[in-house]
Design brief:
The complex is a heterodimer. Chain A is mainly alpha-helical. Chain A has 13 helices and two strands. In chain A, strands 1-2 form a two-stranded antiparallel ribbon. In chain B, α2 runs parallel beside α10, α3 runs parallel beside α4 and α7 crosses α8. The longest helix of chain B is centred in the first third of the chain and has 25 residues. The chains are: A mainly alpha, B alpha/beta.
């Protein structure tokens, strides 16, 4: 596990050092706090999708899930008039149900995950746009209590930064994921299934159940992240909320050592992958604001570097051992 | 024999279909007009109310179309309307320079006017909207009021390719630097522009991703803790600026100058967190577009002014007139 995340960790540290050298405000407490907050929001999605990637599948519907819950919450609360606990419960049950449907179609009908979730990408955003009639949604000044889930901060004693709630959620999610993969037999089965589905099946693992579960975890976490995103920004537009977020999440997961062929994955790596993407975006605004239109190019280039570095480390260790 | 018979049937069916098509495109004499926006926004919801009101007042059919995914989507909508054989359309082009082809196609088969953003090179009959450059200069005046001693300014907007964004921004910068009026000037969004009293730190383009827009506000504050004023050029930018400032305890400390009339923006004006906002008149955009199109399509060319431009001027909303403005807005939206 250490070997796998070493390459990306080195790139991450280098980028942080570079940014700190180029910008005297990068390490200011407020900026660090902002970054931790963003890592929390995007990291939850990335951990979710890494479960699916570990089984050798893919979930492209993530951005639309974010849209569904992110726009669904203000819509249900403000336009429809539901109470917060009810709205939260229903939305999370809906995304769990959608995740189950993805998994069921993939295992029962042997449909390609790419196709099933691509249709999800189109359907969920479309439905949300229809429901909300394309209106911009927000919580206004009401629901500040509820929004504490995303906007709250936990002070850290004498430290100059406070811990933003999304990061607290991420830590909880990451610990659960780590514990699941490391210490439960299902976690081991999940990796075995991703590595070789036939072999896993033949050795008596109920692979279908695990695949369905992984899509449910992914959808649930994406939906949860969507809730946090919209509570944080306090403004959501169904036509573009969460657009392309599946790619941020998939990139972070792959950067963190998940193989799109399945069978590999490390929670710590996914967290570092997410952090790297956010630091890069932050760096571009802080250090090279004139190049902000090159953002995607820079991120793409660094991802490529990270993956290459990873490969190089792997071969280096393989030769030595 | 049988071959001859089937051939006869084939031609009969073709003929039948042809006349049916002819008929269906002519059914009723109700004229039909379209209003194509440049995206999905509450701003356009108000225009929609205006356009639909004009439709009922004048007894014509009105479709309001809002492309959600940018220029490709808008092109398809315009093409579909052309195919449908519509009598006229008002379009707010997303990228006027590069959409000439589709705009000219629409102009060739129907009556085309531009609204909100102009495409002067296209064969549109006229442009109805606000002089965005002047509106930018008005926003510049608001900044000057908010920061009479001078200071640094950051600008936030979704996309700079759009004429309205480019002109608003240029008007704002030119006003702050006390330059002469020249709408063709263009300062690079990334470079710091230093004037005598005011410094423009940069223009941040979020491509309509709101979460990203918020991170840009935060990062700007981190990079320039002494920023004096933030200006949001599109309707959704000021509420996000307010959200980010609120979370960083900077409300009221960093001045905000806004465009358009999002609820949060107007609440911010009332609360004193927003110094003022430059508002257009989207209701009139919708209403007047349809009214003008109806006149033109009925053969009355006299409504087209020689300049090809009908100005629906911007207004400044500050704390003293914000309540009246809100009431009027609510009445128009029937809330």
């Amino acid at each position: 596990m250490m070997k796998k995340t070493l390459g990306i960790f080195v790139v991450f540290v280098l980028i942080c050092l570079l940014t700190a050298a180029l910008s005297d405000v990068f390490l200011r407490p407020q900026n660090v706090e902002n970054l931790i907050m963003r890592i929390g929001l995007y990291g939850i999605m990335a951990i979710g999708v890494s479960f699916v990637i570990m089984t050798g599948g893919i979930d492209l519907s993530l951005g639309s899930m974010v849209c569904l819950t992110g726009c669904g919450l203000p819509w249900l609360l403000v336009k429809v008039g539901w109470s917060p606990p009810w709205a939260l419960l229903v939305l999370l049950l809906v995304v769990l149900g959608l995740g189950w449907t993805h998994g069921w179609m993939i295992t029962r009908w042997h449909l390609q995950p790419f196709i099933v979730t691509l249709c999800g990408l189109l359907i969920y955003r479309g439905v949300m746009r229809g429901l909300a009639a394309d209106q911009s949604l927000g919580f206004g000044t009401a629901y500040d209590g509820l929004r504490w889930i995303a906007t709250g901060k936990i002070p850290l004693g004498s430290l100059p930064i406070a811990l933003p709630m999304p990061f607290v959620w991420l830590v909880i999610v990451a610990l659960l994921a780590f514990g699941f993969l490391r210490y439960t037999v299902w976690g081991q089965h999940l990796l075995a299934l991703g590595y070789n589905e036939e072999a896993a099946k033949n050795s008596g693992i109920r692979t279908n159940r695990l695949i369905v579960a992984s899509y449910m975890i992914c959808a649930f976490l994406a939906g949860f992240a969507g809730l946090l995103f919209s509570m944080d920004v306090n403004s959501a537009q169904p036509s573009d909320f969460g657009n392309f977020y599946e790619l941020y999440a998939i990139a972070a997961a792959v950067l963190g050592g998940c193989s799109l062929r399945g069978g590999q994955g490390a929670v710590l790596g996914v967290l570092i992958g997410t952090a790297l993407m956010q630091v890069l975006r932050n760096m571009i605004v802080l250090v090279f604001p004139a190049q902000q239109n090159m953002e995607f190019a820079i991120i793409g280039f660094v991802i490529l570097l990270g993956v290459l570095g990873d490969e190089w480390f792997k071969r280096y260790f393989a030769k030595r051992s | 024999m049988t071959q001859g018979f089937s051939r006869l049937v084939f031609w009969l069916v073709c003929g039948g279909l042809f006349t049916a098509c002819q008929k269906s495109s002519q059914t009723g004499d109700t004229q039909e007009f379209a209003f194509v926006t440049n995206g999905v926004a509450s701003f356009w919801d108000i225009a929609k109310v205006g356009a639909e009101k004009a439709g009922t007042d004048l007894g014509v059919k009105v479709s309001v179309l809002m492309p959600a995914s940018g220029v490709v989507d808008q092109k398809q909508m315009i093409e579909d309307m052309v195919i449908r054989g519509i009598d006229g359309m008002a379009v707010s082009p997303i990228d006027p320079e590069n959409q000439l082809e589709v705009l000219n196609k629409a102009a060739a088969s129907s009556k085309l006017i531009t609204v909100d953003a102009d495409a002067p090179k296209a064969k549109r009959l006229m442009y109805l909207g606000m002089d965005n450059y002047q509106a930018g200069r008005m926003a510049g005046q608001l900044v000057k009021e908010a920061l009479p001693q001078g200071g640094s300014i950051a600008i936030f907007v979704g996309r700079i390719e759009q004429d309205n964004a480019r002109l608003r921004r240029q008007g704002l910068i030119d006003e702050l630097l006390d330059r002469s009026a020249d709408a063709t000037r263009f300062d690079d969004p990334g470079t710091v522009i230093k004037g005598e009293r005011y410094t423009i730190l940069g223009t941040l383009l979020d491509q309509f991703d709101r979460a990203k827009a918020k991170t840009y506000v935060e990062d700007t504050l981190t990079r320039n803790p002494d920023v004096g004023c933030m200006v949001g050029l599109f309707a959704y930018n000021p509420p996000i600026i307010l959200e980010a400032l609120g979370r960083m305890n900077q409300l009221g400390k960093v001045k905000v100058v806004a465009f358009d009339e999002a609820d949060e923006t107007l609440e911010g004006v009332t609360a004193g967190h927003v110094h003022g906002t430059v508002v257009q008149n989207p209701y009139e955009y919708g209403y007047q577009s349809i009214k003008l199109l109806k006149s033109i399509a009925s053969g009355d060319q006299s409504v087209i002014p020689a300049s090809g431009f009908i100005d629906i001027p911007a207004r400044l909303i500050r704390r003293d007139n914000v309540e009246d403005y809100r009431k009027d807005l609510k009445a128009k939206l029937g809330q």
